[in-house]
Amino acid sequence: MPTVLVDGQEIELAAGEKLNGIQVAARAGVEIPHYCWHPGLTVVASCRMCLVETGTRNAETGAITMLPKLSPACQTPATNNSVFVTGSAKVIQARAMVEEDLLIDHPIDCPICDKAGECLLQDYHFQHGQAERRADLRPFTRRRREMGDTVTLFVDRCVMCTRCVRFTREISGASELMVINRGSHEEIDVFPGYPLANKLSGNVVDLCPVGALGDKDFLYQQRVWFMKKHPGICTGCSTGCSITVEENQDHVYRLKPRTNMHVNEWWMCDEGRYGYHHVHHENRLTEPWVKSARGPAPSAESRDKKVPDTFSKVEWSALLDAMDSRLRKTQRLAAILSPHLTVEEAYLLAKYCRSIDGNAWIAMGHVPMFGEDQVFAKGFTVRAEKCPNRRGVEEVVAHFMGRVPKWEDALAAIESGEVQAAWFSGGYKKSDWNDENVAARCQGLATLIVQDMFRSPLYDQADYQLPGAAFAEREGSYVNCKDRLHSVVWAVRPPVGVRTEASLYWQLLGMPGMYRSRRVLDEIAGEILYFNAAGGPIPPTGVDLKVNLLAGASA
Amino acid sequence: MQPNDPQVKWIEEPKLGLAGKMYLPLFVQGLAVTTRHLFSPKVTVSFPEQRPQIGNPLIYRGVHRLNKDEQGRVKCVACFLCATACPAHCIDIIGVESPWPDREKYPQSFSIDELRCIFCGMCEEACPVDAIELTSLFDLTGRSREEMIFDKEKLLSVYDQTKDAEPMKSTACGGTVT
Amino acid sequence: MATDLPSLMQNVVAPLVKIVLLIGGLMTAAAYFVLLERWMAAWVQDRRGPNRVGIPLTRIKLLGLGQPLADGIKFITKEEYTPAHVDKPIYILAPIVILAAALAIFAVIPFGSVLPPIPGIPGLDKEPIPLLVAPGLDPSLVFVFALSSIAVFPVILGGWASNNKYSFLGGLRSSAQLIAYEIPLGLGILGVALVSGSIRLDKVIVDQAASGVWNAFLQPLGLLVFVVAAFAEAARLPFDLPEAEQELIGGYHTEYAGLKLLLFLVAEFLHMITAAFLIVILFFGGWHLWGLTGFSEESISWAQALLRIAVLSAKVFLVILFFMMVRWSWPRFRFDQLMALAWKVLLPLGLVNLVVVAVMVEYGGTLKSQFGGGVYWIFAISGWLALIAAWVVAALVSPSHDDNTPRRAAQKFDTEAEFYRTF
Questions:
Q1: Which of B2, B26, B46 sits opposite C419 (nearest CB)?
Q2: Pair (C88, C187) in one structural domain
Q3: Same domain, C152 and C237
Q4: Which residues, other chains included, contact A519 with Cβ-Cβ below 8 Å and sequence gap of 6+?
Q5: How far is CA B59 from CA B94, B113, B121, B124, C271, in A?
């Protein structure tokens, strides 16, 4: 077994493991500072920040021979008997020199730089730099260059690590970014007429170790230290990237990818990254309404008014009992589970409907599909299926129905008059999941309940119009297209007046206390074989449920 | 820290003498002190009739102002450092891209909740461009809570009101930040 | 009950007039004593104190004499807030009881000597009118005692009903304190009762006036014990443990507001006024002042009657001033010190005083026949000697002075782990 010596510690590598000096030092608990190296990109060893002393140990005698010069740890493979010394005076001085060099023409405009607080240059300067700058400040010019629709470049702040250039070449594959000029005149730029315009462009901002590349969506919005970070799952498509939801005072300001080697590695797509604006959209519904008299579907004219006259605003407390008793009087019930619901929510709603009507219809909601799956150079995929939890909801539906009735099947059943009451759950980012046609097909329902974030034809027609939660407000688990289950907690509280689906179902079922996703997930894991692996602790990177599929197949 | 830590200094309570145990010195001293103060001159300033003397306006911490530069623009660059330093969370800023070529960011809105403020002066300490300063205005009154939330215009007008009596502290102290 | 006019006047109208005058006077006095207290507090702290409120809607300030009125209006117009968690009947009862008891004590406390008969009013035209609501009550000292004991209940009940741990602690503390200090208070009174041979307060005054020698000169030890106990009974600093703002955020009346709190506060001031009256009456000759007021209650002129009222009021005022000065002069006792002071110091001192007085009374007659008026010098000297001796002994034994440094003998630990293992 290969053994590496890092600052006197012996680190054993697994056979065939290929690590560089930075990675092996991290394993020893030593952080080697670095700018240009990134685990997802190729090595260029240009920033010189990770310079360490390297050498070899003679396997027989144990004598250590060090190289006379410092070498970049990122480019030095850790092989058997490699020796790394990361804390010697020589190394410390080299780092201080690199820091000083980088700061010679770096504008110290941290107060107005959006990166301040999560900037590697800042952090490393405090850790490894010297207290004094010997070079004079150059007058700060605020040269700024647009890289594309999403990213802007503050030219002077760049430290030329070229992570962004390598990303566009290796990961997104479009190679829009390049380095122009030479020597101390080097700058990042795009080819004229070919701006940074690919679906992964936002990642270059995350990659940038300093404040050179700015996210136009986030620019000047918040200082990073004000925001609280909550691990979450992107609900943009069925890839289900691991993300961090960053919010301050119940306002989501940005989403960032969270490293998850099983799903998204270090990246996420722009669609997901900027796909949170609906959470704070002004059109979000925040009040429950009840149709007081059953009339014709509201005309386009009356829909312009916020809500037609036949509707009255109600309190949640009064609403639930009335809705419950009305559902209990109805013969046949249907629950349409949106693929935007968490597994727990889908299960609770199905359970609730089955508790009223033992034969209640449980069906899949509309699964939005747009275009084709888009696969990038290194395999990162943006799915056409724009919902996070089709697999999870399908399995819940299958558990209750024994098969998986699709959206069309459910509509057909409603149209045929087989069911008298239907509960549509929404949670879609846009209101285009139903149209007048769908609404017309649901005309015959005695009771129609729709819970959603935005108004839609079906919503306008509902007897109970309930405002629903957005992804950042939900707590629960999603199953992505590759049967990987992730559990998330809520990042922001829903707007005043909105109740998350889960807490609503929880109360309707008469369960005690506040909604706890873990309790429901335990129940699901016990009930449904598919979810069995979710019975244990869920790591931040999720649990693979396919293990159970194999077990179920063999059983 | 342990009780036997060498850094712990053990001191003995002074032993009381007979007089001390009889509480007599305590009684006499106490009464003597209070009686003396009963007739000593009073330090209260009868405010509306009598204006208090502000010792040094440079270190007095009264109402905030937002300074202007030579062109009459707000000096603030919306860096949020005052809001970060503020222990009372009374500063609320919305920063946007500035319309001027020499500035990257400026505050679209800048408001201080003077009722929440504890007048600690940390915002002034934190400001990298000496834009926010505490003046020596102390008689701050208002008829509603909303009125006491000072917005950018109000804070700039405080500057106009006080700039003659109190020049910007950076220049008053011989600083160079203008 | 006689229904003829003279006895109606004597037994119903005159007491009612006296009650109205007394309660009106006491309430006003309490209000203005609050102002005085705030002034004193301010002056002692080199401030000016309340000096703004004068006549409403004018700019006339009158040194702030309108403040009590403003305070009263403020208290009355405040929201009558009752917390949801309190025991409502008891919560409301407590302030009423405490004020009622505090006021009822004044039924037997003379607020002057007597008024000459008023000619023309049937029933009041023959005998001097005693300035005392219940002149016929013989055991008036016992009555005072009984009612001041009742003052314990509302404090405990208020603390209990408030359903707040601080209130409850305050209530518990004050119950212990008030009960403990009843005993030295009683011992102080007993000495006086022995000397004058009566437990009627007006008789105690007349007795001192007749001899011209106030009890304070004869039994200073009794005075000391009584004054300290009276401070504690009135819960004034340095014995204001029931409230103890710093530790108990107001103690038993933490949960009270508005009018109910006002009742508590007024009762507190009334306790102080009561204590001042008792100190003056029992030890400082009541309305008597040498060469001015005379000593007979049989025939009295209007001028003399009013002068006696003035003298009594002035003495009470001085004692109250002393109460207020003490508040800012001396720090508060710790609770264990408070208890030690009552049981280990004041109780023995009171007993010593009682013994000395008893001896004096026993041999007083014999000595008087031998020395004449000089006997009072013997009594006074022996009283003062008893005070000094008893105080010195108490100080030497110092039962209320604890050694508070037990940490010196704390266990020694070799390692930090050992130290933390003890938790």
A1: B2
A2: yes
A3: yes
A4: none
A5: 28, 21, 9, 11, 49
Mutate to test the interface with B, among A109, A137, A223, A249 (most CBs of B within 10 A): A223
Domain count within chain C: 2
Mutate to test the interface with B, among A216, A220, A251 (most CBs of B within 10 A): A220
Q: Mark yes or no for CB contact B42/C46 under 8 Å.
A: yes
Q: What is the pTM of this model?
A: 0.72
Spatial neighbors of B97 by CB under 8 A, at least 6 apart, are: A219, A220, B104, B105
Residue B35: closest CA among chain C residues belongs to which residue? C44
Give chain B's largest Cα–Cα span.
82
- DSSP-assigned beta bridge partners for residue C373: none
Q: Are residues A419 and A522 in the same domain?
A: yes
Token pair 């070899």: residue: A56
Token duo for residue C23: 């309660």
Contact A440, A434 (CB under 8 A): no
Work out whether the CA dihedral C259, C263, C265, C270 comes out positive or negative.
positive
Whether B78 contacts chain A with CB within 8 A: yes
Q: Which residue bears the tokens 């200082």?
A: A223
> Please, which contacts does C129-132 make with residues 24 or more away whose CB atoms are closer than 8 Å?
C129/C14, C130/C202, C130/C297, C131/C18, C131/C309, C132/C18, C132/C108, C132/C201, C132/C202
* H helix count then E strand count, chain C: 17, 2
Specify whether C217 is located in the same domain as C140: yes
Cβ of C329 and B37 within 8 Å?
no
CB contact under 8 A, C411 and B3: yes
B93: closest chain A residue by CA: A222
Find tokens 């680190």 and name the residue.
A11
Residue A330 structure tokens: 């109805």
Q: Chains A and B: how many Cβ contacts under 8 Å?
A: 29
Please report the residues numbered 91 through 120 in chain B whose beta carbons come closer than 8 angstroms to any beta carbon of chain A: 95-97, 101-105
In a domain, A381, yes or no: yes
**What 3 state SS string does A304-340 have?**
HCCCCCCEEECCHHHHHHHHHHHHHHCCCEEEEECCC
Give the CATH architecture of domain B64-172: 2-Layer Sandwich (3.30)
| Contact (CB<8Å) A220/B81 | no
User: With a CB-CB cutoff of 8 Å, which residues 167-226 of chain A face chain B?
Assistant: 219-220, 223, 225-226
Domain boundary among A240, A259, A280: A280
CA–CA separation, C121 and C141 (whole Å): 31
Whether C47 and B43 lie within 8 Å, measured CB to CB: yes
How do the pLDDT tens digits run along chain C, 423 residues long? 556 777 777 778 888 888 898 889 888 888 888 899 999 999 999 998 888 888 877 778 878 888 888 888 888 888 888 888 888 888 889 899 989 998 888 888 888 777 888 787 777 777 778 888 877 777 888 888 888 888 888 888 888 888 888 888 888 888 888 888 988 988 888 888 888 888 888 888 888 888 888 888 888 898 999 999 998 888 887 887 766 666 667 777 888 888 888 888 888 888 889 999 999 998 988 888 887 777 776 777 888 888 888 989 999 999 999 999 888 888 888 888 888 888 888 898 999 889 988 888 888 778 777 777 777 888 888 888 988 898 888 888 866 555 555 455 556 667 777 766 666
Domain interval for residue C268: 78-335
Q: Any bridge partners for residue A362, and if so which?
A: A335
Q: Does the beta carbon of B144 lie under 8 angstroms from any beta carbon of chain C? A: no
A193 lies in which domain range?
A: 108-116+137-280
What is the rounded (10 degree) CA torsion for A307, A311, A315, A317?
A: -130
Structural domain includes residue A102: no
B59 touches chain C (CB under 8 A): no
